[in-house]
Amino acid sequence: MWKLLWIGLFGAAIMLGGCAKQASDKAQSYQNDGYLGYSNSNPNLLNRSGTLYEKDIQFMGQLLEPVKGIRKTEVGFNGDDANVTLRINRGLSDADRERIRAEAQSILQSNFPRYDVHVKVRS
């Protein structure tokens, strides 16, 4: 009987002793740098070309300006794929459409080897 009483008192003392510790945990917030706690020690971030999209779109438009028959150039990116849609002048033959597409494909793929360039032609 006394043995159970001592075990019970000892267990209660241990449980109360655990509650007596002062909580020193302080809430920490992340810096407002967009990394949410990740350090910038690894320069090889996952999106290797995301910061270049606007400049690449402008440069693609400049490269395709000399190609005759193109009215408008639309560029979209999906990872390493550059999807280019060329709006061409109406009334061009199928041979001219294919020539414009092949020329644009060649120009863009040679100037942007980091992308897989896909060119579509629309009237």
From TrEMBL:
Alphabetized UniProt keyword annotations: Signal
Source organism per UniProt: Paenibacillus paeoniae
Signal peptide: 1-23
Phylogenetic placement of the source organism: Bacteria, Bacillati, Bacillota, Bacilli, Bacillales
Source organism, top-level taxon: Bacteria
Protein's name in the database: Sporulation protein
